[in-house]
């Protein structure tokens, strides 16, 4: 076992972590940069649909919770950009590629938040799907990514519970509140299932990523895990999931469910979803508006460094 590739694979197979200064195949490095950058961009773009409701939260209490949640997403973006930077890519390069539409982010954030219940549905379904995926990523072979995931999962699990609690309150409220809840679940259910990516057979990266233990569970298996966890929660909420094919299958020991609209999925992934253009335009505007903050912070850091030398 002499080649660097074989030694690398042996470390991965022994469940040891790969660290930034270790030798790694170029494909492994590139796959991680692609996935971690996409993940970081998702956290940052994901602030937009929720941020949209901060000024309209119904109570001060809900506003404080929402502001804290949106701030958490920014923090997740920062851990993840830092994790990607350990692979030799600069944060500014990743921003540039996102702004030019050359980097992806999760399809889910290209849907609009139309009513207050959407804030609960994002917590329950979107954060719920995100945790299902991210718990497996805590066991990713790349040390900095897996460690970032541990902390992020703790916060996501709080986000998920606040979303469910918000919806539970609506489910016990007026008929208008119940309608708002149902409308929101109708719109967020299928896009949440799309977050797990294409069917395993159509997933270009899965096989290699599983061999390298970047991914530990397949897209379809995670999607099934999410459905199995969520159906009983929907029953408790008294809300109907918009899929007539959902039913318990005792032979499989899982819930059966209908087919995702894959045409819609690819349309959104390729940049033609309901909000793709607005999300990227808003991000570019925020980056340009924030130039003076970055310049001031850099000038301050340079001044501090000078005074430490003196
Ligand atoms: N959306 O070979 P596949 C959050 C692309 S944010 C867009 O299966 P892979 C939150 C895929 O990139 C957390 N694109 O890919 C924040 C590939 O295209 P490229 C979000 C998708 O990478 C704020 C092609 O389709 N979570 O929680 O092996 C508020 C083929 O796919 C999607 C993450 O980012 C998609 N849904 O597996 C609230 C998780 N799915 O790159 C909440 C990190 C697939 O070849 N990412 N594509 O052009 C992952 O775990 C994996 O990248 C995926 C896909 C499971 C998503």
Which residue ranges are poorly predicted, with pLDDT under 50 across at least 5 consecutive positions?
A: none
Class derived from helix and strand content: mainly alpha
Gyration radius, to the nearest Å?
A: 21 Å
> Which bin fits the share of residues in helices?
55-70%
Question: What does this molecule look like?
Answer:
- By secondary structure, the chain is mainly alpha-helical.
- 66% of the residues lie in helices and 2% in strands.
- The protein is built from 13 helices and two strands; from the N terminus they run ααααααααααββααα.
- Strands 1-2 form a two-stranded antiparallel sheet.
- A hairpin with a 4-residue loop joins strand 1 and strand 2.
- Helix 4 (60-85) runs antiparallel to helix 7 and helix 6 runs antiparallel to helix 10.
- The longest helix has 29 residues, at 143-171.
- It is globular and about 65 Å long.
- The structure holds benzoyl coenzyme A (BYC).
- The site of benzoyl coenzyme A (BYC) has 30 residues, from helix 2, helix 6 and helix 9.
């Amino acid at each position: 076992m002499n080649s660097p590739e074989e030694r690398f694979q042996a470390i991965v197979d022994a469940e040891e972590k790969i660290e930034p200064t270790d030798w790694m195949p170029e494909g492994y490095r590139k796959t991680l940069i692609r996935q971690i950058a996409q993940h970081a961009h998702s956290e940052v773009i994901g602030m937009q649909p929720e941020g949209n409701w901060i000024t309209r939260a119904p109570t001060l209490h809900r506003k404080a919770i929402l502001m804290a949640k949106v701030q958490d997403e920014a923090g997740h973006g920062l851990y993840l950009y830092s994790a990607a930077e350990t692979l030799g890519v600069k944060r500014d390069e990743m921003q540039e590629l996102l702004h030019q539409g050359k980097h992806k982010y999760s399809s889910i954030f290209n849907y609009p938040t139309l009513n207050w219940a959407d804030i609960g549905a994002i917590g329950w379904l979107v954060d719920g799907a995100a945790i299902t995926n991210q718990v497996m990523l805590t066991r990713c072979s790349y040390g900095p990514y897996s460690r970032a995931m541990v902390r992020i999962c703790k916060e996501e699990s709080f986000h998920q519970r606040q979303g469910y609690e918000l919806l539970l309150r609506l489910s016990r409220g007026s008929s208008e509140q119940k309608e708002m809840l149902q409308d929101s679940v109708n719109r967020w259910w299928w896009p949440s299932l799309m977050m797990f990516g294409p069917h395993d057979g159509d997933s270009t990266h899965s096989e290699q990523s599983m061999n390298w233990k970047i991914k530990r569970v397949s897209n379809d298996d995670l999607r099934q895990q999410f459905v199995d966890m969520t159906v009983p929660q929907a029953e408790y909420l008294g809300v109907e999931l918009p899929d007539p094919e959902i039913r318990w299958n005792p032979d499989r020991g899982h819930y059966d469910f209908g087919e995702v609209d894959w045409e819609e999925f690819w349309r959104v992934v390729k940049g033609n979803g309901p909000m793709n253009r607005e999300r990227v335009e808003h991000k570019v505007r925020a980056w340009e508006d924030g130039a003076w903050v970055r310049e001031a912070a850099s000038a301050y850091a340079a001044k501090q460094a000078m005074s430490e030398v003196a």
